[in-house]
Amino acid sequence: MTNTVEAAISPEATPEQLREQMISELKRSGDLTSPEVETAMRKVPRHEFTPEAPLEKAYAAFDAVVTKVNEQGTAMSSVSAPQVQAFMLEQAGVGPGMRVLEIGSGGYNAALIADLVGEDGQVTTMDIDPDVTERAERLLKQHGYDTVRVVTGDAAVGVADRAPFDAILVTAGAWDIAPVWRDQLAEGGRLVVPLRVRGLTRSIAFARHGDRLVSESVRVCGFVPMQGADEHHTQVLLVTGTEEIALKFDDEVMGDPSDLDNAVKAPRSETWTGVTIGRQQPFDTLQLWLATKLDGFCTMVVRDDLDTGIVTPANKWFAMAAVAGNSFGYVTWRRIEGDDGGVELGVHTLGPQAPELAEQLADHVRSWDLEQRGGSGPRFAVHPAGTPDDQLSGERVVNKRSSRITISWPEA
Ligand SMILES: C[S@@+](CC[C@H](N)C(=O)[O-])C[C@H]1O[C@@H](n2cnc3c(N)ncnc32)[C@H](O)[C@@H]1O
User: So what CATH class is 3-230?
Assistant: First the structure.
Protein backbone atom coordinates (compact mmCIF):
# COMPACT_ATOMS: atom_id res chain seq x y z
CA MET A 1 0.00 0.00 0.00
CA THR A 2 1.25 3.49 -0.77
CA ASN A 3 -0.26 6.79 0.19
CA THR A 4 -0.18 10.30 -1.18
CA VAL A 5 0.98 13.29 0.85
CA GLU A 6 -1.85 15.77 1.43
CA ALA A 7 -2.05 19.46 0.53
CA ALA A 8 -1.19 22.48 2.70
CA ILE A 9 -0.33 26.01 1.50
CA SER A 10 1.28 28.59 3.76
CA PRO A 11 0.21 32.20 3.15
CA GLU A 12 3.38 34.12 4.17
CA ALA A 13 5.58 35.11 1.16
CA THR A 14 4.45 35.37 -2.44
CA PRO A 15 5.44 32.59 -4.86
CA GLU A 16 7.36 35.12 -6.96
CA GLN A 17 9.43 36.25 -3.98
CA LEU A 18 10.16 32.67 -2.97
CA ARG A 19 11.09 31.77 -6.53
CA GLU A 20 13.58 34.65 -6.74
CA GLN A 21 15.08 33.59 -3.42
CA MET A 22 15.40 30.01 -4.66
CA ILE A 23 17.12 31.18 -7.85
CA SER A 24 19.56 33.38 -5.91
CA GLU A 25 20.48 30.48 -3.63
CA LEU A 26 21.06 28.16 -6.57
CA LYS A 27 23.26 30.72 -8.33
CA ARG A 28 25.24 31.24 -5.14
CA SER A 29 25.75 27.51 -4.65
CA GLY A 30 26.93 27.14 -8.26
CA ASP A 31 24.16 24.70 -9.20
CA LEU A 32 22.42 27.13 -11.55
CA THR A 33 24.89 28.55 -14.04
CA SER A 34 23.18 29.34 -17.36
CA PRO A 35 20.78 32.19 -18.11
CA GLU A 36 18.55 29.70 -19.98
CA VAL A 37 17.90 27.43 -17.00
CA GLU A 38 17.49 30.51 -14.81
CA THR A 39 14.83 31.92 -17.14
CA ALA A 40 12.96 28.59 -17.15
CA MET A 41 13.08 28.37 -13.35
CA ARG A 42 11.79 31.92 -13.09
CA LYS A 43 8.93 31.18 -15.48
CA VAL A 44 7.56 27.84 -14.26
CA PRO A 45 5.47 28.12 -11.07
CA ARG A 46 7.00 25.26 -9.07
CA HIS A 47 4.39 25.48 -6.32
CA GLU A 48 1.65 24.67 -8.84
CA PHE A 49 3.43 21.35 -9.49
CA THR A 50 3.84 20.60 -5.77
CA PRO A 51 0.36 21.12 -4.29
CA GLU A 52 1.28 18.57 -1.59
CA ALA A 53 3.73 20.99 0.02
CA PRO A 54 3.53 24.34 1.83
CA LEU A 55 4.75 27.21 -0.34
CA GLU A 56 8.08 27.59 1.49
CA LYS A 57 8.81 23.90 1.10
CA ALA A 58 7.94 24.03 -2.62
CA TYR A 59 10.63 26.69 -3.08
CA ALA A 60 13.23 25.29 -0.66
CA ALA A 61 16.28 25.19 -2.93
CA PHE A 62 17.76 21.99 -1.53
CA ASP A 63 14.63 19.99 -0.65
CA ALA A 64 12.62 17.51 -2.68
CA VAL A 65 8.85 17.34 -2.24
CA VAL A 66 7.95 13.73 -1.58
CA THR A 67 4.76 12.72 -3.34
CA LYS A 68 4.65 9.00 -2.62
CA VAL A 69 6.01 6.71 0.11
CA ASN A 70 5.89 2.92 0.45
CA GLU A 71 4.80 0.82 3.44
CA GLN A 72 8.26 1.13 5.04
CA GLY A 73 8.10 4.92 4.79
CA THR A 74 10.68 5.05 1.99
CA ALA A 75 10.14 7.81 -0.57
CA MET A 76 9.29 6.23 -3.94
CA SER A 77 8.39 9.38 -5.85
CA SER A 78 9.10 13.06 -5.44
CA VAL A 79 9.47 16.30 -7.27
CA SER A 80 13.24 16.53 -7.00
CA ALA A 81 15.01 19.37 -5.18
CA PRO A 82 15.45 22.52 -7.34
CA GLN A 83 19.21 22.17 -6.79
CA VAL A 84 19.28 18.72 -8.38
CA GLN A 85 16.97 19.72 -11.22
CA ALA A 86 19.12 22.78 -11.96
CA PHE A 87 22.44 20.96 -12.05
CA MET A 88 21.08 18.03 -14.06
CA LEU A 89 19.62 20.40 -16.67
CA GLU A 90 23.00 22.16 -16.80
CA GLN A 91 24.77 18.81 -17.10
CA ALA A 92 22.45 17.77 -19.93
CA GLY A 93 22.88 21.07 -21.77
CA VAL A 94 19.19 21.10 -22.72
CA GLY A 95 18.59 23.77 -25.36
CA PRO A 96 16.24 24.93 -28.14
CA GLY A 97 15.01 22.34 -30.64
CA MET A 98 16.22 19.31 -28.66
CA ARG A 99 14.33 16.06 -28.26
CA VAL A 100 14.46 15.10 -24.61
CA LEU A 101 13.37 12.08 -22.61
CA GLU A 102 12.89 12.43 -18.87
CA ILE A 103 12.77 9.13 -16.99
CA GLY A 104 10.86 9.57 -13.73
CA SER A 105 8.03 12.11 -13.84
CA GLY A 106 6.97 14.83 -11.47
CA GLY A 107 5.60 17.42 -13.89
CA TYR A 108 7.72 20.41 -12.86
CA ASN A 109 10.98 19.24 -14.39
CA ALA A 110 9.24 18.30 -17.63
CA ALA A 111 7.79 21.83 -17.72
CA LEU A 112 11.28 23.30 -17.29
CA ILE A 113 12.55 21.09 -20.12
CA ALA A 114 9.62 22.11 -22.34
CA ASP A 115 10.51 25.77 -21.85
CA LEU A 116 14.16 25.09 -22.56
CA VAL A 117 13.58 23.15 -25.81
CA GLY A 118 10.91 25.60 -27.02
CA GLU A 119 8.40 25.06 -29.78
CA ASP A 120 10.81 23.26 -32.08
CA GLY A 121 11.78 20.74 -29.44
CA GLN A 122 10.02 17.69 -28.08
CA VAL A 123 9.63 16.45 -24.51
CA THR A 124 8.69 12.96 -23.36
CA THR A 125 8.44 12.06 -19.70
CA MET A 126 7.97 8.48 -18.53
CA ASP A 127 7.29 6.83 -15.20
CA ILE A 128 6.66 3.26 -14.16
CA ASP A 129 3.95 4.29 -11.73
CA PRO A 130 0.54 5.16 -13.25
CA ASP A 131 -0.34 7.32 -10.21
CA VAL A 132 2.73 9.42 -10.95
CA THR A 133 2.03 9.77 -14.67
CA GLU A 134 -1.63 10.60 -14.02
CA ARG A 135 -0.54 13.33 -11.59
CA ALA A 136 2.18 14.68 -13.91
CA GLU A 137 -0.08 14.71 -16.96
CA ARG A 138 -2.87 16.47 -15.09
CA LEU A 139 -0.57 19.18 -13.70
CA LEU A 140 1.23 19.69 -17.01
CA LYS A 141 -2.09 20.13 -18.84
CA GLN A 142 -3.46 22.46 -16.17
CA HIS A 143 -0.48 24.75 -16.60
CA GLY A 144 -0.33 24.83 -20.38
CA TYR A 145 2.31 22.17 -21.04
CA ASP A 146 0.09 19.91 -23.11
CA THR A 147 2.74 19.20 -25.75
CA VAL A 148 4.72 17.10 -23.25
CA ARG A 149 4.06 13.40 -23.95
CA VAL A 150 3.56 11.47 -20.70
CA VAL A 151 4.19 7.73 -20.95
CA THR A 152 3.63 5.00 -18.37
CA GLY A 153 6.35 2.37 -18.69
CA ASP A 154 9.61 0.93 -17.45
CA ALA A 155 12.85 2.86 -17.99
CA ALA A 156 14.45 -0.43 -19.01
CA VAL A 157 12.36 -0.28 -22.21
CA GLY A 158 12.58 3.45 -22.90
CA VAL A 159 10.31 5.13 -25.45
CA ALA A 160 11.40 3.79 -28.84
CA ASP A 161 8.80 5.58 -30.95
CA ARG A 162 10.09 9.01 -29.83
CA ALA A 163 13.79 8.17 -30.21
CA PRO A 164 16.47 9.23 -31.01
CA PHE A 165 16.80 11.69 -28.16
CA ASP A 166 19.37 14.46 -27.91
CA ALA A 167 19.27 14.14 -24.14
CA ILE A 168 17.95 11.59 -21.68
CA LEU A 169 17.65 12.60 -18.03
CA VAL A 170 17.18 9.71 -15.64
CA THR A 171 15.70 10.88 -12.35
CA ALA A 172 15.61 7.64 -10.35
CA GLY A 173 18.70 6.07 -8.79
CA ALA A 174 20.16 3.60 -11.29
CA TRP A 175 22.53 0.73 -10.58
CA ASP A 176 23.11 -0.14 -14.24
CA ILE A 177 22.92 1.57 -17.61
CA ALA A 178 20.00 0.09 -19.53
CA PRO A 179 21.17 -0.58 -23.12
CA VAL A 180 18.15 1.29 -24.51
CA TRP A 181 19.33 4.53 -22.93
CA ARG A 182 22.39 4.35 -25.17
CA ASP A 183 20.52 2.98 -28.18
CA GLN A 184 17.76 5.62 -27.99
CA LEU A 185 20.32 8.43 -27.64
CA ALA A 186 21.51 10.25 -30.77
CA GLU A 187 25.24 10.03 -31.52
CA GLY A 188 26.89 12.75 -29.39
CA GLY A 189 23.72 13.08 -27.30
CA ARG A 190 23.88 13.25 -23.51
CA LEU A 191 22.62 10.82 -20.91
CA VAL A 192 22.47 12.27 -17.38
CA VAL A 193 21.93 9.58 -14.80
CA PRO A 194 22.25 9.20 -11.01
CA LEU A 195 24.39 6.09 -11.15
CA ARG A 196 25.43 3.95 -8.20
CA VAL A 197 28.95 2.59 -8.56
CA ARG A 198 30.39 0.58 -5.66
CA GLY A 199 27.75 2.07 -3.33
CA LEU A 200 28.41 5.70 -4.30
CA THR A 201 25.75 7.65 -6.22
CA ARG A 202 26.79 10.36 -8.65
CA SER A 203 24.83 12.27 -11.27
CA ILE A 204 26.99 11.57 -14.31
CA ALA A 205 26.58 13.26 -17.70
CA PHE A 206 27.71 10.85 -20.42
CA ALA A 207 28.14 11.63 -24.11
CA ARG A 208 27.45 8.87 -26.61
CA HIS A 209 30.34 7.76 -28.80
CA GLY A 210 29.07 4.79 -30.82
CA ASP A 211 28.40 1.96 -28.40
CA ARG A 212 30.35 3.69 -25.61
CA LEU A 213 29.29 6.39 -23.19
CA VAL A 214 31.99 8.67 -21.80
CA SER A 215 31.52 10.94 -18.80
CA GLU A 216 31.75 14.69 -19.10
CA SER A 217 30.73 15.84 -15.62
CA VAL A 218 30.04 14.27 -12.25
CA ARG A 219 27.98 15.60 -9.31
CA VAL A 220 27.15 14.15 -5.91
CA CYS A 221 23.46 13.36 -5.51
CA GLY A 222 20.87 11.06 -3.94
CA PHE A 223 17.69 9.71 -5.56
CA VAL A 224 14.68 7.49 -4.95
CA PRO A 225 15.45 3.92 -6.08
CA MET A 226 14.89 2.53 -9.56
CA GLN A 227 11.99 0.07 -9.68
CA GLY A 228 11.06 -2.43 -12.38
CA ALA A 229 13.32 -4.72 -14.40
CA ASP A 230 16.52 -2.95 -13.32
CA GLU A 231 15.76 -2.76 -9.60
CA HIS A 232 18.87 -3.78 -7.66
CA HIS A 233 19.58 -4.66 -4.04
CA THR A 234 22.87 -4.26 -2.24
CA GLN A 235 24.35 -7.22 -0.39
CA VAL A 236 24.76 -6.74 3.33
CA LEU A 237 27.33 -8.43 5.54
CA LEU A 238 26.39 -8.28 9.23
CA VAL A 239 29.72 -8.38 11.03
CA THR A 240 28.52 -9.60 14.43
CA GLY A 241 25.48 -11.47 13.15
CA THR A 242 23.23 -8.66 14.42
CA GLU A 243 22.36 -5.47 12.56
CA GLU A 244 24.80 -3.45 14.67
CA ILE A 245 27.49 -3.23 11.97
CA ALA A 246 26.36 -3.63 8.36
CA LEU A 247 28.90 -3.66 5.52
CA LYS A 248 27.17 -2.94 2.23
CA PHE A 249 28.48 -4.26 -1.09
CA ASP A 250 27.00 -2.95 -4.25
CA ASP A 251 28.58 -4.64 -7.23
CA GLU A 252 30.93 -7.59 -6.95
CA VAL A 253 30.22 -10.46 -4.61
CA MET A 254 32.15 -10.08 -1.36
CA GLY A 255 34.48 -12.83 -0.06
CA ASP A 256 33.25 -15.51 2.34
CA PRO A 257 31.28 -13.67 5.08
CA SER A 258 32.49 -16.15 7.71
CA ASP A 259 36.06 -14.86 7.16
CA LEU A 260 35.18 -11.92 9.40
CA ASP A 261 33.93 -14.09 12.29
CA ASN A 262 36.99 -13.38 14.42
CA ALA A 263 37.65 -9.84 13.25
CA VAL A 264 35.98 -8.12 16.20
CA LYS A 265 37.83 -10.28 18.75
CA ALA A 266 41.27 -8.79 18.05
CA PRO A 267 42.16 -5.28 19.27
CA ARG A 268 41.29 -2.41 16.97
CA SER A 269 44.08 -0.57 15.21
CA GLU A 270 43.80 3.21 14.81
CA THR A 271 45.94 5.24 12.42
CA TRP A 272 45.79 9.00 11.82
CA THR A 273 46.77 10.15 8.37
CA GLY A 274 47.76 13.79 8.84
CA VAL A 275 45.32 14.62 6.02
CA THR A 276 43.00 17.40 7.11
CA ILE A 277 39.70 18.62 5.71
CA GLY A 278 38.57 22.17 6.38
CA ARG A 279 35.02 23.07 7.26
CA GLN A 280 32.73 22.50 4.25
CA GLN A 281 35.64 21.35 2.05
CA PRO A 282 34.43 18.61 -0.27
CA PHE A 283 36.00 15.15 -0.22
CA ASP A 284 33.65 13.30 -2.54
CA THR A 285 36.53 12.40 -4.84
CA LEU A 286 38.18 10.60 -1.89
CA GLN A 287 35.18 8.27 -1.79
CA LEU A 288 35.61 7.52 -5.51
CA TRP A 289 39.38 7.16 -5.09
CA LEU A 290 38.99 4.51 -2.38
CA ALA A 291 36.24 2.81 -4.39
CA THR A 292 38.71 2.63 -7.29
CA LYS A 293 41.76 1.53 -5.32
CA LEU A 294 40.34 -1.04 -2.91
CA ASP A 295 39.08 -4.43 -4.12
CA GLY A 296 37.05 -4.90 -0.95
CA PHE A 297 35.55 -1.40 -0.92
CA CYS A 298 32.13 -1.15 0.75
CA THR A 299 30.16 1.27 2.88
CA MET A 300 29.37 0.79 6.56
CA VAL A 301 26.29 1.65 8.59
CA VAL A 302 26.12 1.36 12.37
CA ARG A 303 22.69 1.02 14.02
CA ASP A 304 22.51 3.54 16.84
CA ASP A 305 20.14 1.48 18.99
CA LEU A 306 22.39 -1.62 18.79
CA ASP A 307 25.73 0.20 19.01
CA THR A 308 28.12 -1.46 21.51
CA GLY A 309 31.10 0.66 20.47
CA ILE A 310 33.00 -2.04 18.54
CA VAL A 311 33.35 0.46 15.72
CA THR A 312 33.20 4.24 16.15
CA PRO A 313 33.01 5.96 12.76
CA ALA A 314 32.47 9.72 12.92
CA ASN A 315 29.49 9.21 10.59
CA LYS A 316 27.53 6.12 11.65
CA TRP A 317 25.12 6.34 8.75
CA PHE A 318 27.66 6.27 5.98
CA ALA A 319 31.33 5.37 6.39
CA MET A 320 33.75 4.39 3.64
CA ALA A 321 35.00 0.91 4.48
CA ALA A 322 36.85 -2.09 3.09
CA VAL A 323 37.17 -5.80 3.70
CA ALA A 324 40.46 -7.62 3.13
CA GLY A 325 40.30 -11.35 3.87
CA ASN A 326 39.66 -11.82 7.58
CA SER A 327 39.88 -8.10 8.46
CA PHE A 328 37.96 -4.93 7.81
CA GLY A 329 38.39 -1.23 8.35
CA TYR A 330 36.80 2.14 7.79
CA VAL A 331 37.65 5.82 7.39
CA THR A 332 36.77 8.17 10.20
CA TRP A 333 37.84 11.64 11.38
CA ARG A 334 38.55 13.64 14.52
CA ARG A 335 38.22 17.33 15.20
CA ILE A 336 41.36 19.44 15.05
CA GLU A 337 41.64 21.52 18.20
CA GLY A 338 41.55 25.25 17.56
CA ASP A 339 40.37 24.76 13.96
CA ASP A 340 36.74 25.77 13.54
CA GLY A 341 35.19 22.67 12.01
CA GLY A 342 38.41 21.22 10.56
CA VAL A 343 38.99 17.46 10.89
CA GLU A 344 41.83 15.00 10.43
CA LEU A 345 41.12 11.77 8.55
CA GLY A 346 42.04 8.48 10.14
CA VAL A 347 41.39 4.77 9.73
CA HIS A 348 40.24 2.12 12.18
CA THR A 349 40.80 -1.51 11.30
CA LEU A 350 39.83 -4.78 12.99
CA GLY A 351 40.98 -8.35 12.56
CA PRO A 352 44.21 -10.32 12.31
CA GLN A 353 45.46 -8.17 9.40
CA ALA A 354 44.42 -4.89 11.04
CA PRO A 355 47.87 -3.18 11.03
CA GLU A 356 48.54 -3.98 7.35
CA LEU A 357 45.04 -2.93 6.29
CA ALA A 358 45.37 0.31 8.31
CA GLU A 359 48.59 1.16 6.45
CA GLN A 360 47.01 0.37 3.10
CA LEU A 361 43.92 2.51 3.78
CA ALA A 362 45.97 5.38 5.21
CA ASP A 363 48.30 5.30 2.17
CA HIS A 364 45.34 5.62 -0.17
CA VAL A 365 43.97 8.56 1.81
CA ARG A 366 47.39 10.23 1.62
CA SER A 367 47.83 9.53 -2.08
CA TRP A 368 44.40 11.07 -2.77
CA ASP A 369 45.51 14.15 -0.82
CA LEU A 370 48.76 14.42 -2.77
CA GLU A 371 47.60 13.45 -6.24
CA GLN A 372 43.89 14.08 -6.74
CA ARG A 373 42.50 16.40 -4.11
CA GLY A 374 40.97 19.49 -5.70
CA GLY A 375 41.22 17.85 -9.14
CA SER A 376 38.49 17.10 -11.62
CA GLY A 377 37.90 13.58 -10.30
CA PRO A 378 37.65 10.42 -12.35
CA ARG A 379 36.27 9.77 -15.79
CA PHE A 380 33.69 7.03 -16.18
CA ALA A 381 33.07 5.10 -19.37
CA VAL A 382 30.26 2.65 -20.04
CA HIS A 383 30.88 -0.32 -22.34
CA PRO A 384 28.41 -3.02 -23.37
CA ALA A 385 28.46 -6.18 -21.25
CA GLY A 386 30.73 -8.70 -22.95
CA THR A 387 33.31 -6.14 -24.04
CA PRO A 388 36.65 -8.00 -23.74
CA ASP A 389 39.11 -6.87 -21.07
CA ASP A 390 41.72 -5.84 -23.63
CA GLN A 391 39.31 -3.23 -25.01
CA LEU A 392 38.90 -1.58 -21.61
CA SER A 393 41.21 0.96 -20.06
CA GLY A 394 41.08 2.52 -16.62
CA GLU A 395 42.07 1.66 -13.10
CA ARG A 396 38.92 -0.23 -12.14
CA VAL A 397 36.30 -2.13 -14.07
CA VAL A 398 32.90 -2.44 -12.40
CA ASN A 399 30.74 -5.15 -13.93
CA LYS A 400 26.99 -4.63 -14.03
CA ARG A 401 24.33 -6.81 -15.69
CA SER A 402 24.21 -4.89 -18.98
CA SER A 403 27.41 -2.91 -18.89
CA ARG A 404 31.04 -2.76 -17.87
CA ILE A 405 31.95 0.57 -16.31
CA THR A 406 35.54 1.78 -16.19
CA ILE A 407 36.91 4.41 -13.82
CA SER A 408 40.05 6.32 -14.89
CA TRP A 409 41.89 9.04 -13.01
CA PRO A 410 43.89 11.92 -14.45
CA GLU A 411 47.69 11.64 -14.23
CA ALA A 412 48.95 13.11 -10.97
C1 LIG B 1 12.51 11.61 -8.15
S2 LIG B 1 11.08 11.03 -8.95
C3 LIG B 1 11.05 11.95 -10.46
C4 LIG B 1 11.12 13.42 -10.29
C5 LIG B 1 10.82 14.22 -11.51
N6 LIG B 1 11.79 14.02 -12.56
C7 LIG B 1 10.75 15.70 -11.18
O8 LIG B 1 11.55 16.18 -10.40
O9 LIG B 1 9.88 16.39 -11.67
C10 LIG B 1 11.57 9.44 -9.51
C11 LIG B 1 10.52 8.69 -10.26
O12 LIG B 1 11.13 7.59 -10.91
C13 LIG B 1 10.11 6.63 -11.09
N14 LIG B 1 10.71 5.35 -11.45
C15 LIG B 1 11.36 4.47 -10.66
N16 LIG B 1 11.74 3.38 -11.36
C17 LIG B 1 11.33 3.60 -12.63
C18 LIG B 1 11.43 2.84 -13.83
N19 LIG B 1 12.01 1.65 -13.87
N20 LIG B 1 10.89 3.36 -14.96
C21 LIG B 1 10.28 4.57 -14.95
N22 LIG B 1 10.17 5.33 -13.85
C23 LIG B 1 10.69 4.85 -12.70
C24 LIG B 1 9.40 6.63 -9.75
O25 LIG B 1 8.09 6.08 -9.88
C26 LIG B 1 9.42 8.11 -9.39
O27 LIG B 1 8.21 8.72 -9.70
Answer: alpha beta
